[in-house]
Amino acid sequence: MKLYTRTGDEGKTSVIGGRVRKDDSRVEAYGTIDELNSFVGQAAAAALSTGQLNELNVQLVEIMQELFDCGSDLAFADPEGRSFKMSAEPASRLESWIDELTDAAPEITRFILPGGSEVSALLHVCRTVCRRAERRIVTLSDELAINQEVLKYMNRLSDYFFAAARAANAKLGVPDTEYVRSAEVFRKSSK
């Protein structure tokens, strides 16, 4: 199989059911998800290399599968009447993971800066690229009907990356770096 087809040499690409410009909102949305997936792969590899974050690696690999599903659901030229891959279950599972990860990290009262450990820094990159992907999906949803479960999942996923970044630092014994000019913006929970 050849990796090049030359069919995109004039600025168009194939989607399921047609061809569109490479800067089409649909391509921007699933292309940003693809970019996110690459960063998630980097974070997963870094998590595995620590020898202490194997469960995080397993979660990130599952997320990579689901990001492919999200991209697939957004790749339809005409999404009406299609059977989608993403359902409500993955976002619900993310909520469970977020709760577990939040409990594994110390409480925060101020904003934190991305970083600490390498894994945490990579997860913060994932969080910000995820937010950009979400913005691209919102733009697309103004133009076309989309699977709304993709949008819900992406919104939850950015929260997951924040919680995972903090939990990774905690597990590795690396403190989060607080934003020193931040007021106390988070209330302490009454567990």
From TrEMBL:
<feature type="domain" description="Cobalamin adenosyltransferase-like">
    <location>
        <begin position="3"/>
        <end position="167"/>
    </location>
</feature>
<dbReference type="GO" id="GO:0008817">
    <property type="term" value="F:corrinoid adenosyltransferase activity"/>
</dbReference>
<keyword id="KW-0547">Nucleotide-binding</keyword>
<dbReference type="InterPro" id="IPR036451">
    <property type="entry name" value="CblAdoTrfase-like_sf"/>
</dbReference>
<keyword id="KW-0169">Cobalamin biosynthesis</keyword>
<keyword id="KW-0067">ATP-binding</keyword>
<keyword id="KW-0808">Transferase</keyword>
<dbReference type="InterPro" id="IPR016030">
    <property type="entry name" value="CblAdoTrfase-like"/>
</dbReference>
<comment type="pathway">
    <text>Cofactor biosynthesis; adenosylcobalamin biosynthesis; adenosylcobalamin from cob(II)yrinate a,c-diamide: step 2/7.</text>
</comment>
<dbReference type="Pfam" id="PF01923">
    <property type="entry name" value="Cob_adeno_trans"/>
</dbReference>
<dbReference type="InterPro" id="IPR029499">
    <property type="entry name" value="PduO-typ"/>
</dbReference>
<comment type="similarity">
    <text>Belongs to the Cob(I)alamin adenosyltransferase family.</text>
</comment>
<protein>
    <recommendedName>
        <fullName>Corrinoid adenosyltransferase</fullName>
        <ecNumber>2.5.1.17</ecNumber>
    </recommendedName>
</protein>
